[in-house]
Amino acid sequence: MTEASSNIGYAPELDETPPQPWAFWRTDTFQRLIRHRAFMVGAVLFAIVALVGALAPLITSVDPNALSIRNKFKPPSWEYPFGTDNFGRSQLSRVVYGARLSLGIGLGVLVLNAVFGVLLGAAAGYVRKLDGPLMRVADAFMAFPAILLAIGIAAALGPSSMTAVIAISVVYIPRTARIVRASVLVVREMEFVQAALASGATHYRIVRKHVLPNCMAPLIVQLSFIFAYAVLTEAVLSFLGLGAAPPAPTWGNIIAEGRTYMREAEWITLIPGIVLAVTVLSLNLLGDGLRDVLDPRLKVQQG
Amino acid sequence: MGRYILQRLIQAVPILALVSLISFSIMQLVPGDAATLIGGPSATPAELQAIRENLGLDKPFHVQLLKFYAGALQGDLGRSLLLGKPVLEATIERLPVTISISIYAMILTLFFGILAGVIAALRQNTWVDQTVMTFALLGVSIPNFWLGLMMIVLFAVHLGWLPSGGYIPWQTDLWGWFRTTTLAAVSLAVLQMGLLARITRSTMLEVLRQDYIRTAKAKGLPKHLIVGKHAMANVMIPVVTIIGIILSVLISGSVVIEAIFSIPGVGSLLGNAILRRDYPMIQGGLLFVAGSLMLMNIVVDVLYVYLDPRVRYDRGK
């Protein structure tokens, strides 16, 4: 950094050797993450859930939608480890395949948030003229209670997994954009950015090579919490009949279907709820760990 | 102070206009013809036309929008298709129910959340701290609607201590109100309690390290005074900032929780509107909730000044 700034104006190659936070956090931060106990517990738990979802056909050979009326309302046993529901469907299959849908929707929300949150946040933070209007729009979206807005949008679009992804993303993108913008505002004023500007780098290059890499830490922390919110919100949407349409096995759907038979077959509702809670817990632990290591200033997350 | 409040209210106007635009646009998201969805498959073309005219769907977007704004300014948020009465009237009718449960949940949240956070901070890194924080983390991770269902199974079905649903207004029977709302309020409060406990703990730890606390200790003040009076004053500041967030999450949660416990509040009003595709009710209800929350946030910010004498909004503005 000192060497670089003393060469301003003479060193067009300055642009070729920007400070490389990516390379740094690969090594040092990675070590600290591995030593962070809560992070590792979260990472392992989440990896298990994700693997179970990914390898669903290997874990159970039973179709999650296969009906077997003869076997309805079987409590958990060797044959049916998680019991069966009112149609005699294997709850193990449904919960395992549910991991695919629930995590898949969470992942979709994560990707949309990363893409649009970064685009809009960088635009607001870097282009002064866009800052005011974009942030007012973000304020307006954030004036709605998060889950309520998602419910409203999903109600209009009609139930499907795609609806869930869009509805939840619309709610959280303004929040992500705000966080990206806040870091861009800080980084934009830093000397190395000014130096790059002075040495003739284009704005596009500055944003891509200098500004954004330095905004990664709070973004990654935010995204891990968004994943957790997305999985929870998806369950609420499914529970209300606004997520993936039944008989698709999402955890929210299974809980909603089990609700009618709660008195005689509580395992139908109990098990997917526990799995859901463990998944969200693992993501919260992951997020806490990432925050401690990457961005200790970020203490209060926005809800 | 008056000037600050006025300033905040003026700043809220463009955002409220955008909030209305978003609420209004929700009906425009409906794929295909909203009238067909509302009328159902058996509706005749004449009926569909009547629905369109009734909702103004036959007019261009900007005319509909202006009509919506003009109505909203006069306190007319549209007319519920399902109930056949104005959205505002239907919402206000049910408001006392939701407010009473929200206050109940808020009290639970503040009391247990702050208490847990303070205890964890005072016993930092002991088993007490770890246990309390584990529960806080669980609270943040458990879906509230599932918790509500499980509490019904345990407390209503198996133990029979509390009713599984229904609502008795507090005006007629306070004990009955308490019995019918406790499970709902607890389900709503658990997530927030966890959040608040985590925030209170970290703030308290920070405050306890400050010089004025050391001075108080050096003066020989008893510990309960140091924590209860000197430290708490500063711990409360971030707590007040998140009250707006807590309220917002409570209102969100009430849609599902009121449905589970068959409580006739604003939440179940909106929940029903969503299930039955009562779009004017959804639009108007969303606008009402967002608008009220914005107002609440301004009130909270004003309260801030009384809690934190360092914050002076008037100066320099």
- Profile the largest sheet of chain A: none
CATH class of the largest domain in chain B: Mainly Alpha
CATH level 3 topology of chain A: MetI-like fold
> Which protein chains are joined by the largest interface, and how many residues does each one contribute?
A-B, 46 and 55 residues
Under the CATH scheme, the architecture of the largest domain in chain B is Orthogonal Bundle
As a whole number of angstroms, the C-alpha radius of gyration of chain A is 23 Å
The total count of helices of chain B amounts to 13
| Radius of gyration of chain B, whole Å | 24 Å
Q: Please give the CATH class of chain A.
A: Mainly Alpha
The CATH architecture of chain A can be given as Orthogonal Bundle
CATH superfamily of chain A: MetI-like
The structural class of chain A is mainly alpha
N→C terminal distance of chain A: 37 Å
**Which oligomeric form is depicted?**
heterodimer
- The percent range for strand residues of chain B is under 5%
| Total domain units of chain A | 1
- The third-level CATH topology of the largest domain in chain B is MetI-like fold
Described by the principal axes of the CA atoms, the overall outline of chain B is globular
Low-confidence stretches of chain A: 1-15, 298-303
Low-confidence stretches of chain B: none
From the helix content, strand content and strand pairing of chain B, which structural class follows?
Answer: mainly alpha
